[in-house]
Write a structure and sequence with these properties.
8 strands, Rossmann fold, alpha/beta, 3 domains, 21 helices
């Protein structure tokens, strides 16, 4: 997961701070030393780390934090505010032209994930009401055009290509004409990359820029390459000029150094982050929410937004009525699993919840939920509505039908019974959720979810 090492280190530091009624100057220096080490281990640029620590120290001492009644909380707030600033301060979105089509040119090295990102970007913009056109401008890499066509077909988004032309500027101009005739209000150019930065690559991009005049040039960088990603960003910014960055493979970048360095080094904002392999796994990069995730404060707003996209109002109302009547059966349970799966991986969703970072090794294999789905689908309607019918012979039949074991069936039934019990608790007690979370052992919850 993104920022895994940094997140656990910083959360431990902030946990110690919260417990302190008083903080001495030596306590503050020790805390800053730990923060510095955590950032360096996360592969953040040394100069940025030095400046970051210096700013926190200056603000912490300058605001008489040590003498305040809640020094721990004040220091945590300063760390959080500075990290938000380091990540870009505010959310930065695409600047759409009032006279469409808006042209977005994606640039970057080969292997950074440009083609897949082009599809992901088109997908998220379509959800915002846009009508995108993907354009295959990579005429060098074998199968690059075919790859974009496959991505476009999966998303049902049109792709323009011209396999007979070797003139990228000509292809881009033709695509503009097609977009205007088909009423596409966004054109996304998937340009060629190289294995390294060279003059030929930069000149081609400059030619497209000067002739097509894109409204946005977005650099796609692989966050897993750490400081190399930052160096690439600096080179593209200097040579071609970029308006923003899209970080790919952020879900696999356990350190997070690229995200924490790229804005400061280039002066250009991170506009999007790709967080998984699915074509829906992309989100607008929000510095404040990302900082909250890193510091273990949760990101409930992002969960709500994902839920609003995945779960219809009608389904939510139906579930609410059934919960009030105490009628949560296995069909309802299966429907909820399928809806939540649309939101992304279970691990990534749970880690956005405040306090869930306390669970050790929270790595939930989504294949386990495929197993649960198979188990439920192997039951009769009567069994789904009344789990008391599930005696030994029925469980053996269900295990055979779902390709699982009786132990798998028993394990799932135990967890479902626990879910029903929790729902009853919430219904019958005032402040049920609060009391339930208060008394819950987080490590035990982690074991239950595995």
């Amino acid at each position: 997961m993104a920022f895994e090492g940094l997140s656990s280190r910083l959360q431990e530091i902030t946990r110690k701070l919260r417990g302190k009624a008083r903080i001495s100057e030596s306590d503050l220096k020790e805390m800053l030393r730990e923060v510095k080490l955590a950032l360096l281990e996360a592969d953040v640029n040394y100069k940025i780390v030095k400046e970051f620590i210096s700013t926190i120290q200056e603000k912490a001492l300058g605001q008489d934090v040590i003498k305040s009644l809640t020094p721990g909380q004040q220091v945590i707030k300063i760390v959080k505010d500075e990290m938000v600033e380091l990540l870009g301060g505010v959310e930065s979105k695409i600047n759409f032209t009032p006279n469409p089509p808006t042209v977005i040119m994606l640039v970057g090295l080969q292997g950074s994930g440009k083609t897949t990102t082009a599809g992901k970007l088109a997908n998220i913009l379509r959800k915002q009401g846009k009508k995108p056109l993907l354009v295959a401008c990579d005429i060098y890499r074998p199968a690059a055009i075919k790859q974009l066509q496959v991505v476009g077909a999966q998303l049902n988004i049109p792709v323009y290509s011209n396999e007979t032309s070797k003139d990228v500027v000509h292809i881009a101009k033709q695509a503009m004409s097609v977009a205007m005739s088909k009423m596409n209000d966004v054109v996304i150019l998937d340009t060629a990359g190289r294995l390294h930065i060279d003059e030929e690559l930069m000149q081609e991009l400059k030619n497209v820029k000067s002739n097509v005049k894109p409204h946005e040039i977005l650099l796609v960088v692989d966050s897993m390459t750490g400081q190399d990603a930052v160096n690439v960003a600096q080179s593209f910014s200097d040579a071609v000029g970029i308006d923003g960055v899209i970080l790919t493979k952020l879900d696999g970048d356990t350190r997070g150094g690229a995200a924490l360095s790229v804005k400061k080094v280039t002066g250009k904002p991170i506009k999007y982050a790709a967080t998984g392999e699915k074509l829906s796994d992309i989100e607008i990069f929000n510095p404040e929410r990302m900082t909250s995730r890193i510091l273990g404060m949760g990101d409930v707003l992002s969960i709500i937004e994902k839920a609003e996209e995945a779960i219809t109002e009608e389904d939510a109302e139906r579930l609410e009525k059934q919960l009030r009547k105490d009628e949560l059966d296995l069909d309802d349970y299966l429907a909820q699993i399928r809806q939540v799966k649309k939101m992304g991986s279970f691990s990534s969703i749970l880690k956005m919840l405040p306090g869930m970072n306390k669970i050790k090794d929270l790595n939930i294999d989504d294949k386990e939920f495929d197993k649960v789905e198979a188990i439920i689908c192997s039951m009769t309607k009567k069994e789904k509505r009344n789990i008391k019918l599930l005696n030994g012979s029925r469980r053996i039949r269900i295990a055979k039908g779902s390709g699982t074991t009786v132990q798998d069936v028993n394990k799932f039934m135990k967890s479902f019974e626990m879910t029903q019990k929790m729902m009853k608790q919430l219904k019958s007690n005032k402040g049920g959720m609060k009391n339930m979370m208060k008394n819950m052992n987080m490590d035990e919850l982690g074991k239950m979810m595995k």
